[in-house]
């Protein structure tokens, strides 16, 4: 059978930055709220492996934000996910990761936001933290424009005042022939706090709605929303091979989801459902036991170290998971879920079906894309098979197991 190719016209743009801390997330949240205030249907995406930023996107749009990761998913799947998830929107906005050119390593731009932009032919608007710069801003932008092939079509300036904006706009457009789509002033009243893995989660921001309203009002006032909508319309149709997913059978899987375990990629959960899984959510923090009649357990990442006391005190849940393990129910746990299955976390008793002890450290332990090579047959794959992965940890376990080799 021949390949089933699809062609999808999708209005889209990417909001990228010169680096982490440039204001990408603040800007995209402001843009989305400003566009929603106009009554538009907006869908959001995040370039690369990130759980937290999409939570903010989803809170604003009311639609689950999705990740587009060229390393983990490949080019065609990324195009498919972009087209399928964005087809009901009037504009799809992709938030970049780190700086525009930051990708697989220090000496390559592969799998960067720029790589995703080029392969999906998505125009880029660069967010620049302009405070404290004048002519140096031209030098920096010129470097971004000339470093590699790119689709940079404009900039949004961050952290400057309305009084100086006209000077910046004239300087950039005259020197670089690059359109300036507006700016956001410094907005301390809309600031979102951070911690070691990035921003705090959306559910932890007590006055999130007020902050988003402030950002949206400023986007409507200071950003050229009409110009951005026109730019998004210039993106060519996406061409990709259709992906057919057939149900494999019916299973009932318990999915840990609460404040401690909240890191999931929505497309992974959707895929499980399309394959035939019923996902039954439970809370390791509050529920007394696992859901009834389950065939498997998934425990994702999150911040279990912040809730170690409460997790440890829920003895009935610890016992319920240990009992399920003894009965042979398969368990998939990653990151924080792996820590939870150990004997202790931050000195507090955990499930104990694995024997490692884990502690939160004050420095980054592991970061970046990896490939896991199976050393023996296991739940996920056969010996010598490999799985692509990403890690970002400040917590350290004293034993990492021997079933996989990370390379």
Describe the protein.
The mean pLDDT is 92. With 407 residues, the protein is α/β, with parallel strands linked by helices. It is built from 13 helices and 24 strands. The protein is globular and about 70 Å long. It folds into two domains: 5-241, Rossmann fold, CATH 3.40.50; 251-406, Rossmann fold. It has helices at residues 24-37, 52-61, 70-73, 75-86, 113-120, 135-147, 165-176, 208-222, 225-233, 266-275, 308-313, 315-326, 336-341; strands at 5-8, 12-17, 42-47, 66-68, 91-95, 124-129, 152-158, 179-184, 194-195, 198-199, 238-241, 251-256, 261-263, 277-282, 296-299, 301-302, 331-333, 344-345, 348-349, 357-360, 366-374, 386-393, 395-397, 404-406. Strand 7, helix 7 (165-176) and strand 8 form a beta-alpha-beta unit. The strands form seven sheets. It has a seven-stranded parallel beta sheet, sandwiched between helices. Helix 1 crosses helix 8 (208-222).
Proportion in helices: 25-40%
The fold-level CATH name of the largest domain is: Rossmann fold
The CATH class of the largest domain:
Alpha Beta
As an assembly, this protein is single chain
What is the spatial order of strands in the main beta sheet? 4-3-5-2-6-7-8
- The N- and C-terminal alpha carbons lie at a distance of 36 Å
The major sheet is characterized as: 7 strands, parallel
* Beta-strand segment tally: 24
Mean pLDDT: 92
Rg over CA atoms, rounded to whole Å, is 23 Å
User: What's the architecture of the largest domain, going by CATH?
Assistant: 3-Layer(aba) Sandwich
- What do we call the CATH homologous superfamily of the largest domain? P-loop containing nucleotide triphosphate hydrolases
Estimated structural class? alpha/beta
Count of separate DSSP helical elements? 13
